[in-house]
Amino acid sequence: MSKFEQYNIVLKDISTEIHNFEFDLDDVYFKKIDSPEVQKGKVKAKVSVKKILSIYELNFQLDGTIIIPCDRCLDDMELTIRYKEKLQVKFGSTFSEEDEIVIVPESDGGINIAWFLYEFIVLNIPIKHVHAAGECNKTMVTKLKTHITRKKSDDDDDDNSLMELDDDDDFSTDETRTDPRWEGLPNITENN
Predict the structure, then answer these.
(1) 91-133 tens-digit pLDDT
(2) Cα(70)–Cα(127) distance, rounded to whole angstroms?
């Protein structure tokens, strides 16, 4: 018995009418996947399958939350997952992916969607995932500030110094300093 057998969808039994499936992706599921990006969560996956000629169209709808480490303080944080995706599947001789169509062996008669579900979840994790301002671990934020803040010393150039961080936990800044050497550029077109 495969550890992902419950995520098998037998396609050969599906007719032209829509068939619906529901899967609860919980901590046990994420532990079985054994991938570093997501270890915990609670996501409901709804999958509808419809046969259109020789192609099976699978429509996925994922709703729930996952637990991932915050990039800033490394404490766990909740991230909401809301995602819809479509997958087209057809039978062939061996498993492969061609032009957005997944080909599964006809001898199998179906597809296991466990890994597809995980990929859809992971693809929805933003590149930068951090707690909302003020929710990070205060001790870690304080340590982080001491390591990335540098006081301006007498021998530093004004142009190359780092900005000191604000106290609001958000390390990004909306203001950008302009190099004073570039301030004369707009006047070039006016003088010619």
Answers:
(1) 988 888 887 899 999 888 899 999 999 999 999 999 998 888 8
(2) 11
pLDDT tens, residue by residue, 38-72: 889 999 999 999 998 889 999 999 999 999 999 88
R_g of the chain, CA atoms, integer Å: 25
Question: Residue 154: how many CB atoms within 10 A of its CB?
Answer: 4
C-alpha dist (Å) from residue 176 to 163, 172, 179, 183, 185: 10, 10, 10, 14, 17
Question: What's this model's pTM, rounded to 2 decimal places?
Answer: 0.71
Q: How far is CA 72 from CA 62, 76, 129, 144, 172, in A?
A: 27, 11, 8, 8, 11
Chain centroid to CA 179: 36
Rounded distance between C-alpha atoms, residue 31 and residue 9, angstroms: 21
